[in-house]
UniProtKB/TrEMBL annotation:
GO terms for molecular function: hydrolase activity, acting on ester bonds. Keywords: Hydrolase, Lipid degradation, Lipid metabolism, Signal. One of its GO terms (biological process) is lipid catabolic process. InterPro entries: GDSL, GDSL_Est/Lipase, SGNH_hydro_sf, SGNH_plant_lipase-like. Residues 1-28 form the signal peptide. Belongs to the 'GDSL' lipolytic enzyme family. It comes from Thlaspi arvense (Field penny-cress). This is GDSL esterase/lipase.
Amino acid sequence: SRASSSSRRDMDMTLFSFFFISISLTLTALVESAGRGVNNNNNGGLGASFIFGDSLVDAGNNNYLPTLSRANMKPNGIDFKPSGGNPTGRFTNGRTIGDIVGEELGSANYAIPFLAPNATGKALLAGVNYASGGGGIMNATGRIFVNRLGMDVQVDFFNTTRKQFDDLLGKDKAKEYISKKSIFSITIGANDFLNNYLFPLLSVGTRFTQTPDNFIDDMLDHLRDQLTRLYNLDARKFVIGNVGPIGCIPYQKTINQLKEDECVDLANKLANQYNIRLKSLLEELNKKLPGAMFVHANVYDLVMELITNYKQYGFISATKACCGNGGQFAGIIPCGPTSSMCEERDKYVFWDPYHPSEAANVIIAKQLLYGDVKVISPVNLSKLRDM
């Protein structure tokens, strides 16, 4: 792998921000839906699925924010059956990893977006999704999008939900339901690099004053506090995804004019640097917080495996966005009504310039559910549910 010069990367990313803002301001949301779907899987055992994170798992919260980071326009959601193929705010063509995991673990419904009007009463019992496109661990992350929910705000929102569970079930039953039957999944961190530390318009001051080590220190200190806050609100079963190979997404490959078999070295190095220390943090919390189980999901290696050996999984491309425009890998302009779209959506690892397709999400989710300690440790999610 190699990266283009810093000046070219900064210039191209600056141009991207203007492209993105201008395109986003002209797109109009065609259909808005909470996107909840009934599942006939009766495995049982899972109480609520509480989902925190960024656009990889956002199920529609950003639909209710004045933000430039939205996916509530066609053809997003074209393969999402519960909505009849209409967009729900998910940044993919179908289900997210969070949706698929919930289905497999026996949830009756998809976790409902916290900001959705119908996120009240018994609808909360299957779970709540707090994730937000553009969100990050750090509060400054994603401000180029104007509005987004960072991890601190997402934990604040769970505090509200926690009180609602007391009202729904009574204090004792609510505590048992949340601590023993529910799973808390956190998929966050990529934006802290892509739309914070590496983004030139936002990070000039930060990068002069903070080394990558210092910035990652801050990220992990914030995440430690956020996870501890959830623990203090009775969360006990956690799964935390590490940062994927962000240097290999179609956007990064396109703006840096890379070849198919190349990735942006700096972005991947930062991800790996963070990932090593994230695993240590989770080991620390497992020792420090009684009764908690923090599971480490090795998303980086799972996605890199798909990119490297995509043909073995039935894909025809692991470099080009199925839905997007601009450059060799359709990686400049996000997916929207004017985008070109591939014919075989299940044959592409990437749906748009940044996010996996549903087909890729299924493969990743199954590994998290049933895989070995190389990809999910110390236990996989099917075992975590039954603990």
